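Task: complex structure prediction.
Instruction: return structure tokens for all chains below.
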Amino acid sequence: MLKIKNLHAGVEGNEILNGIDLEVKAGEVHAIMGPNGSGKSTLAAVIAGKEEFEVTEGTIELEGEDLDETSPEERAHKGVFLSFQYPVEIPGVSVTNFMKTAINESRKARGLEDMPANIMLKLIREKSELLEIDRKFLSRSLNEGFSGGEKKRNEIFQMAMLEPKLAILDETDSGLDIDALRIVANGVNKLKSQENAVIVITHYQRLLDYIVPDFVHVLHEGKIVKSGTKDLALELEEKGYDWIKNETLV
Amino acid sequence: MDLKDKLISSFLAFENNVDVDHPVHDIRSEAIKNFESKGFPNRKQEAWKYTSLNSLQKTNFSIFPKEVNALEYKEVKKYFLHEVDTFKIVFIDGVYSSFLSETTHDGVDICLMSAALSKPVYKKVIDEYFNKIASKEESLTTLNTAFSKEGAFIFIPKGKMPIKPVEILHFTTGTTEASLLLQPRNLIVAEEKAELQVIERHQSLTKNEVLTNCVTEIFAAKNSIVDYYKVQNDLDNASLIDNTYIDQKDSSVVKIHTFSFGGKLTRNNLNFYQNGERIDSTMKGVTILGKKQHVDHHTLVHHKEPNCESHQDYKGIYGDKSTGVFNGKIIVDKVAQKTNAFQQNNNILISDKATINTKPQLEIFADDVKCSHGCTIGQLDEEALFYLQSRGIPKKEAAALLMYAFANNVLESVRIPELKRRINTLIAKKLGVELGFNL
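Output:
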């Protein structure tokens, strides 16, 4: 599904990612952990195509296709989805209208007609139930005045609507109470299949109790310094990131 | 001959066509004297620093239109709020079109200034209100006063409300004239507890140059409510100087929305005078410009009595080589304690060559007041753009969606749903996008 080779990227000559290698296969869940400033969110943004970051070396391939020079919207059309750590507020545009625009733009890019209104409504109803979202919520302006938990739930609702091949969840657990965390994780698990893949970026082990990863990678100073199974996350939780830092120094 | 001289010499010809014995003519004569001594404003004056009328003054405008032009309704239907029923006061090249208009005298008067100035039944209202709040000093206002003859006249007696909104439309056809100067004069009186909704639009249908120097006086008596919408989406050769003066009495609520999407040069002078207590004055504006268009919003709120409020919210989006000005003046007199005055002007520049000059001007003489002002000039938020793009929305549409969101809260207070839809469509069109849903 996703193949990252020797990825170097940064902002204005300031390198943040220093040679990342990562392969994610269909049906897998990967967790990327690491201390603050290790490059986790940058990696997520670079995969999603944020123009602010410049890729100086290496490649990102999605299903064998090089994503170099591909705009964020084109990546979305190819099936990449990024759940934002800080979703942006868009006053005056309702959640429903936003989803309609997003879905129909993706369909347009694939040469398809707009989704018929009745099918769209059915889909919205189905997916909002999955995330335990109240119908009234859907007519509110996107993210405007939403609580932290509502924003994150809304991100996963969007993911459910867009049915991506590769979903990257950037610190989706931050700012969530335990109930919201359970709902969000439950949503992600229900969307998981053998055809898609998920990358979970998190600081804490907590989320991984609910979304169980096949692999855990630890990022430090823009490099994956350790990879393992879910046990690695537990070990990290116990020993703290200093353990990794010290180990890399040695 | 320059425009000023031409206007002054035309005044004599104008006098042949009006009742010089009417008391209003004394007002006109005073006004032309003021204009003669002051002339057109120039950029040395602080209030005109960013707006030049030089090139307009070099244009050979025709001052008296020929009374021959007619328009078919279907030609101009799109400029009316045709989805709903409205009263209509329509002018073609400055001349009243009874064919396109729908006036009334049924409990309220929605008719013509020329009728109000000539019929004895309106004498009392004219004596009481005409030129009472309009400036006797500002040269362009006095120029309009000097040639005041035609426009809209609306009189809503105590406790009344017209059954539908009023549209004031000025079309210019240019079929007989090269370039046209129009000077409509509107008088709007809402008596105690009266209510009124007005939509005003100036629309050129010609490639010829048009200059409109309009004056509107609005009197809002105790507990009255006036909603006034100015739709400015004219052709690139049409310029508008719009002077609006509002006199408010106790507990009246007046809201003026200005939507500036077009024209060559637009100057909005919006002046509120609060002559009473517990008054609410609201000014809102959305400006979206491109090409070499220019809009200058000059607002004034004079808080003269205690316990009043004023709200200003202007949003601007400037592209290409367009230029914008916002100058918001708030005066709070010493007696006007417990005043709440808010002013906000936010701008987005979407081109390196667009310019905005924004200036709050607060003169506060009372000590127990709440006044706030803020202006911002920025670009589109890159993070927000990325967010929308990452959902599959192309950059151009994403930018439009963000600009729409930026201007949106100004539309919330539009109380005519069809007008709100219309403005939304205009905004989407102006931003050049087809969005996947009806904004």
